[in-house]
Amino acid sequence: MGILVKNKFLVKRGMFILAGVFSALGIIFSSIAMGTDYWIVSEGSQNTSGSGSTDLSFETNIKINYGLFNGRKTTKGQLDLAPVPYSLTVFCPGGEGVCLVSCGTTEVEQKQEFDYLRFGETVYRCQRTTKVLKTSRSRLVQLASDISVKETARSVPVRGNDQFMDYGLWVTTLIFLSLMLSFQVISAGLCFFNTVTIPIEMLVGPMGIYLANGVVGLTGLITLSLWGDLFSSKLSSELAIQETILDIYLMSSSNLGYSYWFVLCSLIFAIASSVCIRFRNSLRKFSNQNVVGVESSTPGGMLY
After folding, report:
1. For the purposes of burial, counting CB atoms within 10 Å of the CB of 294, is it exposed (0-12), middle (13-18) or buried (19 or more)?
2. Per-residue pLDDT tens over the stretch 228-247
3. Sign (positive/negative) of CA torsion 139, 145, 146, 148?
4. Rounded Cα–Cα distance for residues 105 and 127 (Å)
5. Rounded CA separation 92/265 (Å)
6. Alpha-carbon distance values, 110 to 89, 135, 162, 297 (Å)
7. Which residues contact residue 296 at a Cβ distance below 8 angstroms, ignoring those fewer than 6 apart?
8. pLDDT in tens, 22-63
9. What's the predicted TM-score (pTM) here?
10. CA-CA distance, 133 to 95, in Å (whole number)?
11. Residue 222 CB-half CA count within 13 A
12. Residues 304 and 17 sit within 8 Å (Cβ to Cβ)
């Protein structure tokens, strides 16, 4: 009898701790997903048939990765000694309904780039993040390219919303990911709270953990669906950056990066947390049935 009671207590506490660990892992993965810049990973090469092309002998390649807030792109031509890096920032001007993954380093520069690409205003050229040594011939090619773009910038067609990131999908992705992270914190807190006490209120017990993990699962699925829809409909080919909007580069491959898939991992951890609580409840019912069976089979009966 004492052994059964002791085992029951250990199982209850152990399953709550394990469920809390899974919830904590979910928090870590969701935080990494939100804070890292690998929701989109792409690479391509210069569009030699487009309006932004230059001499074929100086074709360059580009690599891009960005997340919900920031990112990075690098270009490397045949005459470059090392890749040329540029920082990226998701810029969403009010009232436009679209976002640009801008290479501007300040809000003013980001607005200038957006106005250039959206309305065909003053030309904005990306500034390198760091200085990179280049040959004198390569610098002349870059200067010629700049002059060519400045002369023909007005004739390059300004694209519509399809060439930019949809603001509605971006902001709802961010909202549901934030909700997911918030309920993961609630789930972890309830799990560890139940290891040290026996709650009276139903919503702070196992039922509350089920509900929190249910919301985590729902918001996680919505987050994956929203960004997946944004990627498949637009960002798989048009990355909402200057190079693809002006058709200067063609992307040869675009994929969802590890930051996106970390959201799926967080969803799996939420399911694992709920399974632990369910397993704990099943063992508790089984131990209660055993106790009842022992008491009913005790000879001599009991006096009340």
Report:
1. exposed
2. 999 998 888 889 999 988 88
3. positive
4. 8
5. 29
6. 8, 29, 19, 79
7. none
8. 999 999 999 999 999 999 999 998 887 654 444 444 568 899
9. 0.78
10. 41
11. 18
12. no
